C-alpha cells in the first residue's frame, strides 16, 4: 500500500485505518510519555505553492523536498499567517492571527512586544536548545523584538528584512552582534555567500544539540531578495543554459540549492541517529509572487500560482489576501509517527504551529493565542487520543485588506473603500464568481467574525534605531555603511 489518506470516506478505507494506526503511533497516554522530540521548521522565503517538483512543476528540481513529501504528509490547505514576510512570521512565532499580532506592517523591523511568548520561549522551560537561522523580520536591533529576548539561545542571519535582500552583506547578525563576511560589499558584490554561512550555522547547532531536545527554526532567505547564487554552486549548472531570463534561471537554481540543503539536514539527522526523534516541517512563508512573467506565461515562467497540470490558477499573489497570497507548500515528516505519502485537506494556518509544537513537546500554551493544534491530523486521532478540532473561522488583515475563511466559504474586502466579496472555494478556487449578493446571511456571519477578530495594534518599541538603520543600509554596501 503506497498511499494512505487519513480522512476516510468509505468502509474499506476505515478498516485500513483501524489496522494501520496502531502500528504508526501510540495511544495518547503513551505518546505523552515519549522523550521530548526535536522540532525543525524550514521556511523558504517566497517559494510558491506550485513551484516544488512534487506539485508537478516541470522547471524546478526539488528531489529532497519531493522525497520529504513522499515520506510524510503534504497539505493542500496549509495557509500562511499573512501575505507578506514580517506579519506572517509574527503569526507563525506567536500563535496569533493578524488581527491580534504586534507585527502587522511589513516595514522590516517592527518589533514584537517585550515578553511576548514565542515557540522558542515556551520550549525553554522544558530544557530545549533553541536556534534560529535565516531572516527574523519581527524586531530590528535595539528593539524589544530581537530573538534573544524571545527564547532563542542563538539566532544567526538577518534581523531586518531589507538587510536580507542581499546575499553579500558586509556582515550578518548573531545575537545582535555583527558577524563579518569576508570580501562582501553589499548588493550582488562579494565573496562570502551569506546563505552558505547561515546553513552551516544551522547544522552546527543541530550537531551541538544532539544530546538534548532542540528546536531549530530555519526561515531561510532563498529564493527571495536579489536573485544571486554563486556560479560555482552545482545547482547553477542545471539552469544556466535554460531559455529563460537570467533572474528566472538563478531563481530556479536557488530553489534547487535550498532543496540540496534540506537534504543535508536529513542526512545529518540520520548520521546523529535523530531521524525518528525529530518532527521536521517545511513550508513557504507567504504566497508566490508570479515572478518572471512573459506574454505567453503572464503568471510567471515558474507558475507559482498556476497548476502546471490543470492550468487552474489562484487569484492574486504575494501581498494580496486572495488565495495566491496565502497558499503555501507545507510538508511534515516524522518517521514512525506520520504515515508516509499522505495528502491532507485539513484547513489550517500559521497560528496553528505554536499549539501543535506545544502539544508535541508538552509545553505550556500562552493564554492569548488563536491557533489550534493539528497533531491529530499529523499522527492520527488514535495516536493523539482525540479528534482533530476545526477552526470556526480563519482571519487575516493586511494593509487595508481583510479576509475571513469559514470552511469552504471565504469573504474578502480587498480595500477599505471596496465592498466585501464572497467566494465558495469548493467549486471556485480561482475566486472568480462573487456570491455576496446571493448569500447575504453567510456574508453577514463572516463579517461578524471579522469584526470580532480585529483588535488595535500594539507594537513593540525601540530603545534606539541606530543599529537597525545601519543594518538596512548594509544592503547597499560599503559607502552606505560608512555614512552610518
Protein model, in words:
- 28% of the residues lie in helices and 15% in strands.
- By secondary structure, the protein is of the alpha/beta class.
- It folds into two domains: 378 residues, Alkaline Phosphatase, subunit A (3-Layer(aba) Sandwich), CATH 3.40.720; 54 residues, 2-Layer Sandwich (Arylsulfatase, C-terminal domain).
- The strands form three sheets. A ten-stranded mixed β-sheet has the order 7-6-5-4-8-1-9-10-2-11, covered by helices on one side. Strands 13-14-15-16 form a four-stranded antiparallel β-sheet, with helices on one face.
Q: So what's the CATH class of the largest domain?
A: Alpha Beta
Give the SSE order as H and E letters: HHEHEEHHEEEEHEHEHEEEHHHEEEEHHH
Output the structural class: alpha/beta
Q: Which range best describes the helical content: under 10%, 10-25%, 25-40%, 40-55%, 55-70% or over 70%? A: 25-40%
Low-confidence blocks of residues:
1-33
Give the terminus-to-terminus CA distance.
62 Å
Might you state the CATH topology name of the largest domain? Answer: Alkaline Phosphatase, subunit A
Q: Please report the number of helical segments.
A: 14
Any idea how many domains? 2
Strand order of the largest sheet: 7-6-5-4-8-1-9-10-2-11
* Secondary-structure arrangement, i.e. CATH architecture of the largest domain: 3-Layer(aba) Sandwich
Main β-sheet, in a few words?
10 strands, mixed
CATH H-level homologous superfamily name of the largest domain: Alkaline Phosphatase, subunit A
Shape summary: globular
Strand content: 15-25%
Strand element count: 16
Quick check: average pLDDT? 93
